[in-house]
Design goal:
By secondary structure, this protein is α+β, with helices and mostly antiparallel strands. The chain is built from 18 helices and 18 strands. It has helices at 7-14, 22-32, 47-50, 72-84, 136-145, 160-166, 173-176, 179-182, 204-213, 248-256, 293-306, 321-328, 330-333, 352-368, 385-389, 418-432, 455-460, 465-475, and strands at residues 38-40, 63-68, 89-92, 108-112, 119-122, 127-131, 148-149, 183-190, 195-199, 218-226, 228-229, 235-244, 266-275, 280-289, 310-317, 339-347, 376-382, 404-412. It has a seven-stranded antiparallel beta sheet with strand order 15-12-14-13-17-18-16, sandwiched between helices. A five-stranded antiparallel beta sheet has the order 5-6-10-8-9, with helices on both faces. Strands 1-2-4-3 form a four-stranded mixed beta sheet, covered by helices on one side. Helix 10 (248-256) runs antiparallel to helix 14 (352-368) and helix 14 packs antiparallel against helix 16 (418-432). The protein is globular, with a radius of gyration of 23 Å.
Length: 498
């Protein structure tokens, strides 16, 4: 099936294409998709239960119908129908995308991959194959039971493929690199309607582009990854701390001191947050060390000496890092349906005065806006030696040299506060841009942390774009996959959206 080349012939047979209502689309799919597939209208009582709901309600897409295919052929048929009837669509795995660009889909079709939920581990081959809807929470237990590990992210509810196609960062990245570096092959339906296997030996041009910009070319229904034998018998130190805001300079100086010398087994996450019980604005920090407890404690001893007002240092199975670290915040962070204005930025250095300014700014935000007190401003630092050892030109991912990432989530519960939340995010990001250490005037951001206003130069960089745009023209010539931090038809090297 390759409908991009047969569309005019089909139109001659079918006649004019008119706008379709949800019930009309449902009738078509119930007749033409496999018997185990399912179709849901938003008006139906079970819609919110049986379809994958979005984590973020801010600037969210809207749908006239959600379809849950069960076969690759189903996916092809849905995409072809959407193309023929000029209906925008999104594929949903975890439903966790931050970017406001997904909101460009209005009255579209959701391709809910919830039935593609298989997890298969080959212990002897050190591989894992997962379906397009698998979350990190679905793989950690089976991998641990098999004596294996993987470089998961920081939230258990995120879809593994969505994270991987943009890069995939996390605390075990220091040991194993990015999640996309572990990818071995994928099975996908492209923007031309073709079902293909993509790997280093099959469609190697697309293999390059998938790893860093993969959501621009099609829907991945399954993927195979390399997995790894246990490090430190599958155990890691997780050290959680809470500090008063006044202690922030020492905490960030500690983080800065690891720039360029981060052990592969160590990771740092520090966040500014608010809790009335803790006196208002405070900082919480998590440190993962994959090694002996005494060695990990030696690394963080300066912070213990600093005198946090709360701490929890323990050895945990690696499979529990997402759910148990950071005082178990994962359970709250994964609640779906709230409003989040999310902003990111790459950091090529940790500038302590900038961090102090950020604490002061967030303190003023919390003081003036009680609605935003569920939000946080974080930086994550993961060792990059393994990530940087892989040549930059081997994948489309452009930011292997980033030292850290800034991530702000302005959470709020009332949609009337959306404009104010966005202003907070824009202002906070502007605090970091001058000292980020970037070598260009673009807003350089890890694409999965993108707010959506950075543009393709910020997500993919000028050096990657010519090759990516050629791939877009080949594998998605009709720009069907253009609703998530998408490649544009043209770009300007002078683009500057600061």
């Amino acid at each position: 099936m390759n409908f991009s080349f047969s569309i005019f012939g089909l139109l001659c047979v079918l006649g004019p294409v008119f706008a379709q209502t949800g019930p009309e689309v449902a009738l078509y799919f119930r007749k033409h998709l496999s018997s185990a597939s399912a179709v849901y209208l938003p008006s139906e009582a079970n819609y919110s239960v049986d379809t994958t709901q979005r984590w973020n309600a801010f600037r969210a897409p809207t749908y006239i119908i959600s379809v849950k295919p069960t076969t690759d052929s189903d996916v092809q048929k849905i995409i072809e129908y959407a193309f023929l009837h000029n209906i925008s669509f999104l594929g949903t795995g975890g439903g966790h995308a931050y970017s406001v660009t997904v909101g460009t889909v209005q009255n579209g079709i959701e391709i809910d991959l919830g039935n593609f939920n298989n997890v298969s581990i080959d212990k002897d081959a050190n591989t894992m194959t997962v379906g397009g809807a698998v979350h990190f929470a679905n793989i950690t237990g089976p991998l641990y039971d098999a004596g294996k590990e993987f470089q998961v992210g920081s939230c258990s509810c995120v879809g593994i493929l969505g994270a991987t196609l943009g890069g995939g960062v996390g605390p075990y990245g220091g040991l194993h690199g990015l999640q996309l570096d572990a990818l071995q092959s994928v099975r996908m339906v492209t923007g031309t309607g073709a079902l293909i296997e993509v790997s280093s030996t099959s469609h190697p041009d697309l293999w390059w582009g998938l790893r860093g910009a993969g959501f621009n070319f099609g829907i991945v229904t399954s993927a195979t990854y390399q997995v790894y034998n246990f490090t430190n018998n599958g155990q890691a130190m997780s050290a959680d701390f809470r500090f008063y805001a006044a202690q922030n300079a020492s905490l960030y100086e500690f983080a800065r001191s690891f720039t360029g010398r981060m052990p592969d087994t160590f990771s740092i996450d520090i966040a500014i947050a608010y809790n009335e019980s803790f006196g208002g604005t405070y900082l919480f920090a998590n440190f993962i060390y994959v090694g002996a407890l005494r060695e990990g404690i030696a690394l963080i001893q300066p912070l213990i000496d600093l005198g946090p007002f709360d701490q929890n240092i323990t050895m945990i199975p690696w499979k529990d890092i997402e759910t148990s670290s950071k005082f178990g915040v994962d359970a709250v962070a994964c609640i779906k349906g709230n409003f989040h204005s999310v902003w990111g930025l790459n950091l090529y250095q940790v500038d302590v005065p900038t961090m102090i300014a950020a604490v002061n700014y967030m303190d003023s935000v919390y003081a003036q806006n009680a609605d935003f007190r569920f939000g946080f401003l974080a930086i994550d630092m993961y060792a990059s030696r393994v990530t940087e050892s892989i040549p930059d030109d081997s994948t489309a991912y452009p930011y292997r040299n980033a030292v850290a990432r800034f991530l702000l989530d302005v959470g709020f519960s009332n949609s009337s506060r959306a404009a104010a939340a966005s202003q907070v995010g824009h202002t906070a990001r502007s605090i970091f841009i001058p000292t980020s250490g970037a070598n260009t005037s673009n807003i350089e951001v890890y694409v999965n942390y993108g707010h959506g206003d950075e543009g393709q130069l910020g997500w993919y960089t000028e050096r990657k774009l010519p090759r990516l745009n050629r791939l877009k023209n080949k594998y998605d010539p009709n720009r069907l996959f253009s609703h998530y931090n998408a490649l544009e038809a043209t770009y300007s090297s002078s683009n500057d959206r600061r």
